[in-house]
UniProtKB/TrEMBL annotation:
<dbReference type="InterPro" id="IPR013178">
    <property type="entry name" value="Histone_AcTrfase_Rtt109/CBP"/>
</dbReference>
<dbReference type="GO" id="GO:0006355">
    <property type="term" value="P:regulation of DNA-templated transcription"/>
</dbReference>
<keyword id="KW-0808">Transferase</keyword>
<keyword id="KW-0227">DNA damage</keyword>
<dbReference type="InterPro" id="IPR051236">
    <property type="entry name" value="HAT_RTT109-like"/>
</dbReference>
<dbReference type="GO" id="GO:0032931">
    <property type="term" value="F:histone H3K56 acetyltransferase activity"/>
</dbReference>
<keyword id="KW-0804">Transcription</keyword>
<keyword id="KW-0539">Nucleus</keyword>
<dbReference type="Pfam" id="PF08214">
    <property type="entry name" value="HAT_KAT11"/>
</dbReference>
<dbReference type="GO" id="GO:0006974">
    <property type="term" value="P:DNA damage response"/>
</dbReference>
<dbReference type="GO" id="GO:0005634">
    <property type="term" value="C:nucleus"/>
</dbReference>
<dbReference type="InterPro" id="IPR016849">
    <property type="entry name" value="Rtt109"/>
</dbReference>
<keyword id="KW-0805">Transcription regulation</keyword>
<keyword id="KW-0007">Acetylation</keyword>
<protein>
    <recommendedName>
        <fullName>histone acetyltransferase</fullName>
        <ecNumber>2.3.1.48</ecNumber>
    </recommendedName>
</protein>
């Protein structure tokens, strides 16, 4: 893994956020990056991006009463989370695929309010650690997941445990937003983009009547903004209006704090070809409601071949017949079975934007692409 200079071992980070008087055992399994189908469909007459995928699986167990008994105590799995990491030339995508609990954390005798906090802390710490470990200089990174409540994801039969607390759709969306808020707050807030005229005016007001260093000050301000890594959270719940979605995102710590979340999507910032048709702007994740809708819409394309992922049929311009824009795509998602009839799905992103690549790094990228 490409770790940052200030990265710490996962074990040390978990020890800081978990109760000191409780023993947890962690099992972390990972696979090396292997070539995988592209997340984004390529525009017509364009090759799909070369994409690599690696898998990370973290399981957590407890051994209640192990310190009070001479006999070997029974070990209980309490939680597991699966994360897929996709890497391309310009983007790293951390997709939280599945997470589930067994309810066996109740054996620790924690109150209901306390029993949820270790799982929240483990999830946030693990994702935050992966973000730091997988950052690349000058390359944007995004954490992506969809929150949809189910009785069980990874532990068959766990729903039969009366101690398992299953959140409903709305509760799960809020839970994941709070978990990922810790990732957002690991980094500086994004600066509001200003026009050149506004930046010059601000610089002039700082320097008074002396405008000799105006240009230099503007350059320094821009340089400072490029020297820090920023992060921002995004949420969309198909079928919900803006006012309703605002109730799900974490509030700022104070009224004067900059908002760290917004109720929209960042897809145009992430797609390799922002001007391409909508089908080329939406990533194709496994077992994702968006992906199932994408597959159905792709049947409208001429020469469509089922199961062919990453490209565009040669006789097609890449546009669907029914859905023409991203806004229409999200509007139609609200009528999908998974997003209506009293159910809802939250699509959540955290975009981490590092300082821009240097000229040398950009030149190296260009030379590698030509070789």
């Amino acid at each position: 893994m490409a770790s940052t200079p200030d990265s710490k071992p996962l074990r040390e980070l978990l020890a800081k956020v978990l109760p000191k008087d409780v023993s947890f055992t962690f099992y972390h399994f990972s696979t090396p990056p292997t070539k995988s189908p592209a997340l984004y469909s390529a525009p017509p007459h364009t090759k799909p991006e070369r994409t690599y995928c690696e898998s990370h699986f973290l399981a957590v167990s407890i051994t209640p009463g192990s310190s009070n008994s001479a006999e070997a105590a029974e070990e209980f799995l309490i939680f597991a989370i699966e994360v897929l990491i996709y890497s391309t030339k310009h983007l790293t995508t951390i997709f939280v695929s599945k997470a589930d609990s067994t309810g066996c954390i109740s054996a620790l005798g924690l109150s209901r309010s306390q029993s949820g906090s270790p799982l929240k802390a483990i999830s946030g710490t693990f994702v935050s650690w992966l973000v730091k470990e997988r950052q690349r200089p000058g390359k944007r990174l995004v954490v992506s997941l969809f929150a949809r409540a189910q009785d069980q994801y990874l532990f068959p039969g766990s729903v039969e445990n009366a101690d398992k607390h299953v959140l409903d759709d709305r509760g799960l969306i809020k839970w994941w937003c709070r978990v990922l808020d810790s990732v957002v707050r690991d980094y500086a807030p994004e600066k509001e983009s200003k026009s050149i005229a506004k930046r010059i005016a601000d610089s002039a007001s700082k320097n008074g009547s002396d405008n000799r260093h105006m240009g230099a000050d503007v350059e320094v301000d821009m340089e400072k903004s490029e020297d820090i890594t920023t992060a921002k959270g995004y949420l969309i719940i198909p079928g919900f209006d803006t006012h309703d979605m605002l109730r799900y995102i974490p509030p700022p710590p104070s009224p004067t704090s900059k908002p760290r979340w917004t109720v929209t999507h960042p897809l145009l910032r992430l797609a390799p070809h922002p001007a391409a048709p909508p089908r080329c702007l939406i990533p194709h994740f496994p077992d994702d409601p968006k992906s199932r809708f994408l597959d159905e819409l792709d049947e409208e394309l001429p020469d469509h071949v089922g199961g062919a992922q990453g490209g565009t049929p040669s006789r097609s311009n890449g546009y669907w017949k029914s859905v023409k824009t991203l806004d229409q795509f999200w509007d139609m998602m609200a009528y999908r079975q998974e997003c209506c009839s009293g159910r809802c799905v939250g699509f959540i992103w955290v975009v981490v934007t590092p300082p821009h690549a240097s000229i040398k790094e950009e030149a190296e990228d260009e030379s590698q692409s030509q070789s």
